[in-house]
Design goal:
With about 260 residues, this protein is an all-alpha fold. The protein has five domains: about 100 residues, Orthogonal Bundle (Helix Hairpins), CATH 1.10.287.1080; about 25 residues, no CATH class; about 30 residues, no CATH class; about 50 residues; about 45 residues. It contains twelve helices and no strands.
Length: about 260
């Protein structure tokens, strides 16, 4: 990598943002603040993940640029507010990476990725001065699935956890029975509560196997989109308007789409 060129391009990007936020810059960019950009940050992060799910490296390059822009944007706002600047952001992450990798930058010997993860978590906890997380010690700005995951991890630290996955599956079956009863009785509020319980139990199952539930659902969304687009194209090949098909006819196309993308 040409580090001189890297420095030039990062500097150029910062200057572009300074001009956009400047007195004669872009009205939309000038109007933004820390909080108005939250939705864009989430959107760009998810688009990075979507590019990875699709194994679209060209798209990944573009989306990483869009995500980097959000970092530059927030840092420029911080600089204008005299809170911090991009240099401090980079210095902070450099310091953190070095401190949390003593097996690379110091003499600590670690043999596996698992040991590295344990060391990272221990250093992170020491930095916070916390050895056991309380039930409220989680990032409340995350999507709900990730919040559920973290809450369950916090409960695990004090021993409140399942011993085996079959117990979680049995809990899911229990929740399904309860929602059937709520639907039978047309209890709207109870249906909402039971749906929440089912999702929360499903997160517990994903956590048991160290699977990020947010990514699991996102993968399913990508898979569904691929299959649905395939169905529409197949109908179009046969000069059929897909939306005019009966549910039974759509199901035939769905089964064909599942076969087409059976590896997923």
């Amino acid at each position: 990598m040409d580090y001189n060129l890297l420095s030039e391009e990062i500097t150029r990007l910062v200057k572009i943002m300074e001009r956009l936020r400047g007195e004669n810059g872009c009205p939309w960019d000038r109007k933004q603040n820390y909080y108005s950009l939250k939705g864009y940050i989430l959107e760009e992060a998810y688009e990075v993940v979507e590019a990875l799910e699709n194994e679209d490296i060209g798209h990944l390059k573009e989306e990483l640029g869009d995500l980097l822009l959000q970092v530059i944007f927030e840092s420029q706002i911080a600089k204008e507010n005299k809170d911090f600047d991009l240099i401090e952001v980079i210095k902070n992450i450099n310091k953190k990476l070095i401190k949390r990798h003593p097996h690379v930058f110091e003499d600590l010997k670690l043999k596996s990725a698992e040991e590295v993860k344990e060391t990272w978590d221990k250093i992170k906890e020491d930095e916070k001065g916390n050895t056991i997380k309380g039930i409220d010690d989680y990032d409340k700005g995350q999507p709900s699935l990730n919040q559920a995951y973290e809450i369950q991890e916090n409960a695990k630290e004090v021993g409140f956890d399942w011993d085996e996955s079959i117990s979680i599956i049995e809990k899911l079956e229990e929740e399904l029975a309860e929602i059937k009863e709520a639907i039978k009785n047309n209890e709207k509020e109870e249906i909402k509560n039971e749906i929440g319980d089912i999702i929360f139990s499903a997160v517990n199952l994903s956590r048991f196997y160290n699977i990020n539930p947010e990514l699991a659902v996102f993968s399913t969304i990508i898979k569904f989109k691929k299959r649905f687009k395939f169905m529409e194209k197949e109908a179009e090949k046969n000069n059929i308007i897909f939306s005019e098909l009966s549910l039974e006819e759509m199901e035939k196309y769905w089964k064909k789409a599942k076969l087409e993308f059976k590896e997923e």
